[in-house]
Amino acid sequence: MKNQLIHIIDQIAKEKGIDRETMFSAIETAIISVVRKKYHENSKLTVKFNSEEENFSIYSIKKVVSDDKLTDPHSEIGLSEAKKVDESIEENEEFLTKLEDVDLGRVSIQTVKQVIAQKMREAEKDVAYEEYLQLKGSVIVGTVSAIEKGTIIVDLGRAEGRLPYKEQIPKEKYRKGDRIKVYICDVQKTQKELQILLSRRRPEFLEQLFRDEVPEIEDGIIKIVSSSRDPGWRGKIAVSSNDKDIDPVGACVGVRGSRVQSVVRELSGERIDIVRWSQDIKEYIKNALLPAQCLSVKVDEENKSAVVIVEDEQLFLAIGKKGQNVKLASALTGYKINVFSKTEVKEGIKADDTKQAAVESVASIKGINNELVEALVEAGYSNVEEIAKAKESDLAEVNEMGLERARQIIESAKKSL
After folding, report:
1. Is 6 in the same domain as 113?
2. Residue 313 to residues 337, 343, 350: CA-CA distances in angstroms?
């Protein structure tokens, strides 16, 4: 049994990649739990391994007490008895006695094996946790082992990961046995299991795919600044270069589009826009909206918003189907982007001019402040004449001014004509 256990330790440590000390600790726990039942629950035991002899010994640990205070022979030993073995020993010290010819028995051996198996599972979980924790934020290849209520279970080697439906690309379908690339989002260890959350739809997955395809990114020459996605349909990735001689967009596209097409294939045909990052936010926004051409960009840095004007025929291209292009550009740049055509801007200016004329006309009436002027214009009164001809009851409802105040304003308007 003893030689067999030492052999098992070496074999499992090699196969599972588990530290030998962890193995020894597991076996020690198992042996002690069995031996304690055979002797006494109060017994304090320890196991010492001898790797050279491929053997181990079991010792009983007892506290040395004065002979007259000895109450529990299973956990204590009298001073006089202890000194027969070690003359230098004193009270309150520990006294080790080797248990000779310990027969664990068949039932006990089975218990030892069960405890060892449990400890090995825990040790394997710890090893896997450390391994996958190091891989958090990276892309790994696994195999679909099962599909449970929409969640894809992926065999990653030492552990299984879960790819929930909300982390999948909508139009993709997988079957058991399929190879799959996944992004490791999170790694958690509970008492029961190791939990690894996977994704294929997060922007970080897109970024990692480019890191794998473009050596210049891994080398630090090209930097990924930001990314945004409508998973399965369209994505944008902003890049910059630390070397003026290397074009970041061209490097990511690759010769004849080889690099970007490799990413597109992995994402089931998702269209990818590679955007040139610029320190000039206006230029960056223009690049983010490509292929649409912008006429002008007005930025509100405080509110992180921008107004972009394009030619009428460029409006749909800039906004995109269901607003996709402008939404992705907004997410990429961090600015809320509003796009208008030249015609929309002109019509808006005309409306503004009309309102301004109304404000100026109504403001010429004596005895009313700016707040009331705005309220009257918003209520539909565009000039002095309309107010002069207004019914007192109608005017009284504006800003809840009342009949008396309405009568005064009408009289004042008549005098202004």
Report:
1. yes
2. 18, 10, 21
